[in-house]
Every structure is written in C-alpha cells, then in structure tokens.
Amino acid sequence: MSTPKFTAEQRAAIEARKGSSLLAANAGSGKTAVMVERIAAAIREDDVPVNAILALTFTEKAAGELAERLRRRLTDLGEAEHARAVDGAWIGTIHGFCARLLRSQPLAAGLDPRFEVMEETAAERLANAAYDTALESWGRTHGAEAIDLAASYGPNLRDLIRGTYSTLRARGQARPRVQIPPQTAAPDASALAAAGEAATRDLAPAKDGVRIAAARTALEECARITAQDGVPWPGELNVAELKGGAKALQSDACEAYREVWAAYRSACAEYHSHTALTLIDALLHRYGRTFEQAKQERAAVDFEDLELRARDLLENAETRERWAERFSLIMIDEFQDTNAVQLEILEHLERDNLFAVGDEFQSIYRFRHADVGIFRRRAEGVVRRLNVNFRSREELLDVLNTTFRPEFGERFSPLRAGRQEPPADDGPTLRLFAVDPPSGDPPVELLITDTPGWDEHEAKLGLAGGGDQPWRRGEARAIAHRLRQETEAGRRAGDIVVLVRATSSLRLLEEALEEQGLPTYVVGGRGYWSQEQVRDGLAWLRVLANPHDEEALLTVLSSPFCGADTDELVALTEDGRRRGSLWAALRARGETRDGDRISALARLIVKERDHAERAPLEVLLERAIVATGYDLATLSRPGGDRRLANLRKLMRLAGEYERAEGRDLRGFLADAQARDLAEAREGEAALESEGLDAIRLMTIHRAKGLEFPVVCVADLGRQSGGRRAALLVGEDRTAGLRLAPLGGGDTIPTAAWERLAAEDANAEAEEERRLFYVAFTRARELLILSGGTDTSKWPAPRNGGPPIDWIVRALTPSLQLPAVLERTWDGRIARLKIQVNTPETLLDEALVSRPRTQHQEPTALPSVPAKVTPEFVRGRPAPQRLSYSQLSDYAKCGYRFYLKRVLNLPNIQPPPPVEGEPETVSGIDPLLRGSIVHEALEELDFDAPCAPADDAVRALTDAELTDEEVAEIQAFVEAFARSPLCGRLTRAARVTREAGFHFTLDQDGSGPLVRGFVDVYAEEPDGAHLVVDYKTDHVPEGTTPEAYVERNYETQRLVYALAALRAGAPRVEVAYCLLERPDEPLTVTYDAHDAPDIAARIRELAHGILTHAYPVTDTPHRELCGTCPGRTKLCSYTSEETLRLPPALWPGGPGRRTSPAGTSPVAAPPRR
Questions:
Q1: Which of 150, 355, 1083, 1161 has the maximal Cβ count within 10 Å?
Q2: Which of 1039, 303, 1033, 1140 is nearest to 681 (CA)?
Q3: Which Enzyme Commission number(s) are on file for it (predicted)?
C-alpha cells in the first residue's frame, strides 16, 4: 500500500474535519487528492458511514473521477467494504442531488412522482413555444402599447424576457417579476428651451458653414420640440443634438446647451420607461406562467426547477432537519461557481459541517449566473489555503505571479512551485526549487501580430475561414508555424492545445494548423458529432428517412455529395417555392435525365430511398460516398484522411448501433442527435479526444480542470465585449432599461440602465482576467500567448476591448519589446520571450501547405472506435391520470366525457334559446369572471390585502371589461381580503399559492395518478395544514351554502384532503370561501386515519373512468347536452330530451352569475 505524500498545508486541510471551513485552492494544487483523502479519513478515523457524506461537484465527469479515486483509495487502505459502498454514495452534481431529493418526496414538492428532467434543448423548445403563446396573449390584452413595444424591440424582446427570467430564477425568484420604479414627474422643458435660445444668440455672429448651419437647424428643432405639449420620446430629441466640429460651437453657451440637452433626454427616458417596464413585467409574468403550465402538463422540470423546488422543499423545518441529519459531512467542489439558490440549499443542509473548496480566481461561469461574491463572503470565515502548484515549471509560475498579482491585488495568493525539477547537470539528485539562473528557453512566449499593413498581403495569406481582418490570418499562420517547430523538435502533437475565448475563432486556427501538416482535433463547440463530415453523413441519412427535411437536403446539396454552389442552391430553392417544396424541385430536376451533379444526386436519392429501410446503414453511407465521389473530394483537402476517417467512424458506429438495437434508420438518427446534445451539454473536453496524438483546439471554458505540456492562448486581439442586454436587473431587483424607438434607431438608456451597465462591465472585466488566469495556468512546460494590436499606438485597456491591451501591459509594463524580457519574482529571474509578427517578418514557409511530420499518425482518430453501449430500457405504461375536473365531467355524463375527453371531439354549436328559458344577461361570463378573480387573488398580498387597481384588473384578461364588471371583480377580492380565512393566511408559517399536487390513489404507489392545483395551501403555526379554495358561485335561494358545496364540490374536497394527507400532513382543513359570503367559510377537517376511506370514495367515483365504462346521463337537458359532440347523431336520447330546460339544481351544474360580494343576490340567469 502506497501512502500519498502531502504538503503541510494539504495535511492541515485533511485533518481539520470539525466545523465548516473554506479551502482556497490555487490552480494545480492537488485539491481533488485532498478531498479524496479527507473523505477516506472521515470514514476510517471518524467512523462516518459512506452514505452519510455528501460530495458535490460541478460536472458529471468530475463526480465520476472523485468517486473512482475514492474507491481506489479505500481499496488501497484495505477497506473493501467501504470501497463497494461508494457506488451508492451521495457523490454527484448539485442538479443530481436535487433530482434525487425531489424523487424521494415528489408529492411534497408538488411534482408528479414520475416527473422527468428535460434536456436543455427540449426545455429550450418548450420555452420558445411558451414565449410565443405568452406574447400573443399579452399583445391582445395590452393592445396598441404592447404591439408598439414589441415592434420596437423586435426579435430582441424574446431574448430580453427569457434572459431576465433566467437571471431572476438563478437569484431565487420562483416567479420572476421586475421591480418597477415609481412614475417620475414629467420633465420641465423650459431649461432646455432657455439653453437653446442662449446658444442661438451665441451663434448669431458666426459665419455660415456646414457645421454652423447644422447647429442652427438643431437649435430650431429644439425650439419646436420644447414648444409642444407632452413629454417627447427620447429618440425625438436626436435632431436637436448640438454637434461640434467648429470653434464657434465650443463656446460656454453651446457647452451648457449640451449638458441641459443630455439631462433632459435622460429625464424623458426615465419618464417613458415606467410604461415600458410595466408592459415588460406583464409579459415576463405571463411568460413565466405559460412556461410553468407547459412543464406541468408534461410532468417535466428543467434544471432551474430542480434547484428551486429542492430549496423550497428544504424550507419546511421538518424536511430540512431530516435531510440535514442524514449527512455528517458535506463537501462541495468549485464553490466559486455556485449561485444564490445553490447556496440556500447548502445552508439548509449545513450543520457546521460544510467543507467548501474552490478558487476565487477561477470563477468563470458568470454567464451561467455564478456569483463569485458567494465565495468572497464565505472567505471571511475560516479559510485554509493550498498555494503550492504541482503542475507547472517554477519559472512559468513566476511569470504568472508577476502578471496577475497587480491585476488581482492583495487577495491573490501567489503560486508556489511544488514540482521537483531535474538539475541542470541532469544528475540523479532532485531539488524542489531552483537556486541557479534558469537555463533553456523561456517558459512563456508572447507573439504579437502588428495589425497594420496586412491588407496588401491578403491574397498570399489564404485561409478562407479568416474573415475580413487579414492580420488575424497572419496571426494564425504565425501560430501554426510556431507549433510546427515544436513538433519538428520532437514534441507530440497530443501534448499541445490551442485555447480561444470564442468558438468562432477555432475554424481559422484549425485550417492554418492543417496547412502546416499538423493533425488537429476540435473539442467542444465542434466535437465529433459536429464535425463537418459527420454532419454530412447524418444529413444524407436524414434525407433518405425524409426527403422533405429541407435543412438536411440543403446540407447534402452543398456538401461534397453534390458540391452545388450558392447560385444553384438559390435557383433550386426558388423552383421549390413554385412547386411547393425543395424536394419536389429536386425530384423534377432528376426526371430531366440531365448529366449535371444535381440531377444525378436527385436520381441517386430516389433510388436509395427504395432500400433505406432494409439496407444496413453502413451500406447506405458507403454507396453514397462511392457514387458521389465524396471520398475523393474529401481526401483532396488538407487533413483529408482525418476528415474521411470521421465519416468512416460514423459508419462503424451505425453498424454497432444496428447490431445492438436492430435495423432502424430513424432510431439511429435519434440516437446520434442525443449523443450530440449530450456532448455539447457536458461543457468539458470530450473523452474521445483524450489519448489522441493531435493538437486539440477548444475554448478556455472547455479546458477548465485540464492541463497540457504546451498551451497556446490565441486570438487575444479579438474584441471581448458583446452588446449588453436592453433590460438589466440589479441585485435589489431595480430595473434599468434601454428604450427602443418605434421604427428603429439607437436605443436610449435610462440612468438606472447606465449605472447597472457600468457595474456589469466592471464585473465582466474582472471575470475576463480570471478567465485568462485559468487559461494560462493550464500549461505545464510552455505557455504561448498570441494576439494582434497596433504597436505604434498601444491602445489603452478598456472594458470590452481586446484582452491583448491589458495582457501586454501586465507582462511588460514598460511596453518595451526585447527578444527576451527578464523580470524578477521572489528573487528569481522570470523570463518572457517576445516576437513581433509583421508581413515582412512572416516566413515564407509559414504560408505554404506542408506535409504531415514523419512521426505523426495518418489520422487524429483513435485506432479503436468508441463503442455504442446498448441501453435496453423497458418502456412502462403511462399511469392513468385523473383530475377533479375529469371526475366532475364524468359525473355529469359518462358518454359526453368519452366523446370530449377520450375521442377529443370538438363542441358543436349551442342550440338557439327556447320559450321559457330566461334571457341571457349581458356582461362577463361567470366562468371568465371566476378566472379573473382567481388571478387577482393569486397576486394578493396577505399581509396588506387590498383590491387591485382598475388597470391591473383589465390586464388580467383579453376581454373588454366595463367599469361595473371591474368593480364587481374588485369587490370579490376585497371580500376575501376582509375574511377570516385571509387573516389565517396572514398568520400562517408557510403559504403556497396555486400549489400543484400529484398522488397515486393507492398507498403503495400503484394505481391511477391524481393531479391538480389548490388555490392556497398553508401550514399554520400549530402544525395544522389548511387548503383554501375561492368560489365566486351564487348559492340559489332555498339552498344552504353547506348543501350547495357538498352537492357541487364534495369530490373536489375529497381530492384536496387526500392530496394533503398523502403529502405528509397529519391533519388538514379544507376551507371553501364563497366570496358572496366571505365571513362564512365552509370547512371540513380530515386526519391521517381518514385517508383510506377518502381513497376508496375517490376510486368509487372514478370506477367508470378506470374501467372504461361511459354511461349516458340520467338527466339530459340543454345546459348539459347543448354543445355535446354526440347530441345530433350519436346520443340515445331524442332532441326533445336533450334540449329541455335543466332542472333547478342539477348535480354538477355550473356556478351562476351573482351580484357583487357583500350585496343582496339577484336572480341567477344561466351561463351564456
């Protein structure tokens, strides 16, 4: 048994297992080894059971590695039993833990016990559909103002709403809303008018000229605008802006005008932002509700739901205590990348036993809502540090320390070398730190591409992927040549990685490396399943499966399968519009028997489709490759053998899939799509690339947690900042908006937006420095930094500017560029090699295609293809689902239920009124009124209840409401606000509105699944549970409220009671509040002993549904049967029977119109 050697600081972190603490672990400091040893020590020395340890990591791969290393360590220590127990340990991601928690108590969390966690792409599709639905409804509700706002922001409104929704959810808001500032007073234009007049007088003596004339026109526009009534839209003031460019325009009067103009425009923006923010908040709320409803219907949750629902579940004191007691030790890795909701979950579980591990300076996931402030606040407590880096050369670390210490400040703990280096004489002695001047080449190289002067050399630079900046192609050529030198000196290509900030930089660098004869492998954004040849092969199979898949068809046409150029594709597409589809046009082209490529391809597709379902997938691909010359076209390109090997590998994977799953073209395509999505979602280097002898190219984020002998960080001259969102929300929920003018033009920021944008830019700049710290610390032996800048100007660093501007100054503050720059750190020399790349210095050998180096393999692919592991998943029948509305509809008429609910037949036109039927009363439909009242009560603040304003009521529906109808709805809300039930909710320990529930009818988890919502679910201070349901029904004369509720809502009451009891409530009170009688709530209390009887009663009511028996009603009448799909031809009753007047109080009848709450009821006409 080998005993790991730990440093003193590592040993201290392992042995200090009492109390919560933070381990600040520098890059390469062996933190995973510390975590493994700490867990092993807790198991062996503290007698902590394996399943009493919760260890959370950032990715599934990291969790798997941690579990495997722990298993090996326990095995080495002779703890075989504990090693086997690791398989069931709580080691995983935060999302995995949340899912496991929710699956253990789905009903308490308001989830279907068989809920599914949606893939990101599935959630994306559902969210987009929900936005479209919400946008349409919002536009109808808010009318012209909403339509104008949507037109102003255009497609960006979708990103604005969805981005804000995601941000606020990550901050802990389950139902995100924006805090709207109060409406500001209309700004006074008199100061601007006076300043305009003063500037006009000041310019009167000035000679005419283009700029003076433009200034006078602007001042005339100022006079016109300030003379108008109302507050102008900020964009209207652009014509009154006073530009410079002439000496006369630099006077005090002109400068004063500019200041007043800017202040007035900002005030106008603030004034108009109130209306815009109100509309945006309404759309945000509607989108959130629609999205949640869509997920509820699918019994699905997304990753944000996992965290939010787990947090909410743990807010229950009993649940929190039970789960906290389960874990004796809690550890979380990458703590710097947590968000507010994840922190709440950890704090719910923490009992002074949380060991958080991370590095503030490696926090790079702000775009995923990670909050580095969480790490910084925790660092104010007990902190232990790991400063020794075992990864990199000491001199390389010294260069990094001199670079980042000034950038990060005092919080940064310098990296100390822990790697043992061979001495200069290559003798057998090992030493920890160098004492002599460094020998060999400098460990850090700076390649600066001077940006001017490349345009005239564009033709010889080549590289079609280079875009419109020739200097970037020059930089790519210089990098490729430098890395070629490394491989010629004996370095394995697999020891080298090229890192960039954005995936869009990868193609250019890949092409440059391939032209130097270097094998490459792009990881991440273009991993295996996104390689061009793999996409082509899959597109071919998709076309064979469905030739109307136009995306796949266009991919095939433009690929080497056909090689159609842009003009041919445009012409074919136009023909497709005339013929109805692109496939129709292509098929017609094939029928002409012409000899061109497109016609030949069309005939090949028609021929191959005849065999598509019977022939092996490998054969289908092989025949296409040979028939079209795809192989020859691909082999003629740089790196052609590797490219073709990608397609050959796809053929092997297809063959293995068929041997595991059977011949299934569409099944393989679905499997390929799932693999592609899984690879993209993982967010780390693909396992496929490990062990390859090829230069890997990836983003910096993908490289986190990895290390390489040689790291080249490229394209540092690329602008780093993107456009900031038009809506920014601060931590205090304060909203800042850029107003978009109708008809296009520049957006106008409010003062709040400018403040929040400045804060955001500063946070972005801080993270950029952390991002490149992560990139630089991936290197073990050699770090190459490359970027372009104008060395004659040396642009000053700025937020959003090219990183090279601050990186060069951090490396060489004097901006002097000697061949080798020597700096010192801790008394040691730290060398930096510098080379400036210009059109004149770029060598000719860097510009020509070169053969692959001798020792390289002919392809970058592994010799053994990845195996397709068949996963045989037995489909289980979906559980039969029941809801209160189903039971209610079935009770009215089983046959009508069958026609509408089972066969999904639409309603027919209602019959005309007959003599003796009361006249329809104009006004709001009672069902619609009930829905509006419920929505209003959903927003009611129980601590300070009051009715909503008129505008707020009208915003709840698409229907036009009269003032009387608005007042009626407000009266209902006010009635509940003063009811005793509202007072109980105010005093409740926990309140959930629109609480969803799911439970199985049988206690053992079998049987049908009952689901639904309750208006309010509360836990009272004494531990009792309360269900509240609002009703706007009118109780007819001659009937008591108790009898009315029992006749119409007894089934619902039973369902609500059993839902609460199955969720763990020892006792539940179900209360109905008839809002016309708010002071007389109708309540019934049930306890756990009643659950079996309630379940038996519900099963009895659902017996017909469960056994598929659909009897016709005993009491047909026009209100029940009028719109029934079977009334005219399918029903066994005659028209006279189905169209007779309803009985006075037929069971299950709908609620009638009623007078406003608290007033005398009027006669109740039937529902319209």
A1: 355
A2: 303
A3: 5.6.2.4
